[in-house]
Fold:
Amino acid sequence: MAYQFIDGTIADGVATITLNRPDVLNAFNRAMAAELQLTLGAVGKDPVVRAILLTGAGRAFCAGQDLAEAVPPDAPPPDLGDIVKAGYNPIVRLIRAIEKPVVCAVNGVAAGAGANLALACDILVAAEEASFVQSFSRIGLIPDTGGTFFLPRLVGLHRATAMMFLAEKVTAARARELGLVHEVVPHSVLHETAFSLARSLASQATRGFGLTKRALNRSLGADLDSQLEYEEELQREAGRTHDYEEGVRAFLEKRKPQFTGR
Ligand code: T3D
Structure:
């Protein structure tokens, strides 16, 4: 994983992916979006990787679209729909489709597409200094990167509307109250806390997590009856995994299970 704007390392079953354009608060240019897509695609398929940790370099998580690249001087305005289609949408689809836990360590401000990138992840751990800003309205845009899908489902329609219209900074503490963030910790222990969480998830029954994620993805637009049927189908699949057999055996033998993700 050697790229210009994305750093990647793999340790203890966890792929740590770092957005790395700190001078512009890790704002997305086209290259960083493409590199993130390639990285997510690779770690999603890598059997050694059983959990993913996404974070940002420097003082910010991500300031969304690089506005200098989006509006180049002396050039005709770009088609923003095309930028969203080629850059952000594949990233959100990948995060949701990867059947492994994706933990997001929100190390600082997450604005625009950066805020919604974080919300597309499975579990968020934030530094006390972190914040979330639906900054799109300040420049006349609509919230993209899945924001209009995830945010109302996470906080309710009216709160999401207010966050999107007012573009106010939501502190990490408030984000936790709203249920956006799982845990808020001092910045000094953010990486350690988020990595421990990802490593712990990576050591557990990860096929089960993958199937759970598949069920949760579907639940966002499903009715109860069809979701119950889907649970039957996925539980059938979970029941055939080595990890299920190992989990039950370990429970009955009163020992710690040795899960392998199979
Ligand atoms: O292509 C399309 O446009 C369609 C897709 C859209 C998706 C989107 O994400 S639209 C939303 C784009 N993002 C924003 O509008 C956020 C812009 N940034 C801010 O509002 C603020 O920078 C923050 C609230 C994120 C942080 O504020 P603060 O005071 O902590 O930092 P700062 O001083 O504003 O920024 C520090 C530097 O980063 C600064 O550069 P300098 O002066 O040190 O040379 C600033 O210009 C640069 N920077 C911050 N955000 C961006 C950026 N440069 C380019 N693009 C950015 N998004």
Residues 6-202 form a domain with the 2-enoyl-CoA Hydratase; Chain A, domain 1 fold (CATH 3.90.226.10).
